[in-house]
Amino acid sequence: MVDYKEKLLELLKENDVIKFGDFTLSSGKKSSYYVDMKKAITMPEILDSVAHLITEKIEGTDIDKVAGPALGAVPIATATSLISKKPMLMIRKEKKSYGTSKQIEGELLENDNVVIVEDVTTTGGSLLKAIKVIRENKGNITEAFVIVDREEGAKETFEENGIKFTPLLTISEFKEYLNN
After folding, report:
1. At residue 108, does pLDDT exceed 90?
2. Residue 115 — φ and ψ, nearest 5°?
């Protein structure tokens, strides 16, 4: 059996997805490392490993849908949907101003059990907005999966909001992997 977590660590290292140096994040905050997940989620092998890891965790549960907020999580949700055979949902940042004016693409039924996926979390704030959209549309979020947790408050944010939070990797685990 393939150890997808080990494979994911190797692929992130080989593809230089997590870079060390001096960076300014989108929040304006300074950081000694940068997680280039947009690069990672365009690579089939990385998406395959991520989708298998998430599918292993949701197999045998009563999950109805896999959701991903636009833009970064859509490839993750798509890959997970293909491997798990669960329909997917795309969550827009805001409602469309034309056509159907929907904020959720895909069919969310009342009381559907939904897992939401994301590429990287810092505090978890942006993912929480997508979760709110699903809840407002009568879906149940059962768990939030993230490829890399920067360990800067997301875990606490999700605990405070009663959401099970499952990072596939933490930045600490990745640093430990590099040091071994």
Report:
1. yes
2. -105, 145
**Which amino acid, residue 147?**
I
Average pLDDT, the chain: 93
| Burial profile 99-122: b = 16 or more Cβ within 10 angstroms, e = fewer | eeeebbbbebeeebbbbbbbbbbb
Establish how many alpha carbons lie within 13 A of residue 135's alpha carbon, considering only the half-sphere containing its beta carbon.
12
Q: Which are the contacts of 23, defined by CB distance < 8 A and separation ≥ 6?
A: 30, 31, 32, 33, 34
- Domain range for 118 is 4-179
Indicate which CATH number applies to the domain containing 67: 3.40.50.2020
pLDDT (tens digit, 9 = 90+) per residue, 38-81? 899 999 999 999 999 999 999 999 999 999 999 889 999 999 99
Name the CA dihedral angle for 161, 71, 46, 18, rounded to a multiple of 10 degrees: -80
The number of folded domains in the chain is 1
pTM exceeds 0.85, yes or no: yes
Q: What is the mean pLDDT of residues 79-105?
A: 87
